[in-house]
Amino acid sequence: MYDRAMPAETESGHRHSADTGWAHRALRELSQRGYRAGGARSAVIELLAEEGGCMEAEDVAERIRERGRSVGTASVYRALSLLSELGLLHKLALPEAPVRYELVRPGGEHHHHIVCDECGKTVLFSDERLEAAIAEVSRRAAFEVQAHDITLHGHCQSCQEAA
Question: In 38, 63, 121, 144, which residue has its Cα 20 to 30 A from 76's Cα atom?
């Protein structure tokens, strides 16, 4: 399960405001790099833009098939891999969980994750003070931090109540 601590959510935790800007950028990038955007690639881009990303490859394939489009799981994996290589997706690898693919937005929207170790629920969070602390550590260490991923682990409210 995936929740967003920021934008509006559906019951499944996915945002339903299509990210058409990301989709246009992805299609443009494919074209500029000499790749066709046929079949599986366009279906993957369309779905991820509509769902806001952070999906597992198997879920992407299943959702595309639910929409009546024929797509092979291997084709979905290849499309996700290519979009990642082009810097359009970020792979989110959590311990003991399938890799999820998140949209990379040009505006630099940056977030981190809180993961329930019991049920796998994932919540996004942003924190300006955390980003400032990372910048300060970088400055003090005389180290140019180019990227960082922070994942906090614990138990969500539902799992705490069930215990």
Answer: 121
Contact (Cβ atoms closer than 8 angstroms) between residue 47 and residue 40 = no
Q: What pTM, to 2 d.p., does this model score?
A: 0.69
Give the pLDDT confidence of 94-152 residue by residue, as tens digits: 777 788 898 887 766 677 888 888 887 888 788 889 989 999 999 999 998 877 878 88
Nearest of 41, 12, 29 to residue 106 by alpha carbon: 29
Domain of residue 91: give its range.
2-162
Helix (H) or strand (E) holding 46: helix 39-51
Residue 81 half-sphere exposure, CB side, CA atoms within 13 Å?
6
Residue 146, C-beta contacts closer than 8 angstroms, at least 6 positions apart:
none
- Which stretches of 28-109 are assigned E, i.e. beta strand? 55-56, 89-92, 100-103
The CATH code of the domain that includes 18 is 1.10.10.10
Task: Answer yes or no: are the C-beta atoms of 152 and 115 closer than 8 Å.
Answer: yes
Distance separating alpha carbons of residues 131 and 154, to the nearest angstrom: 21
How far is Cα 157 from Cα 5, in angstroms, rounded to an integer? 14
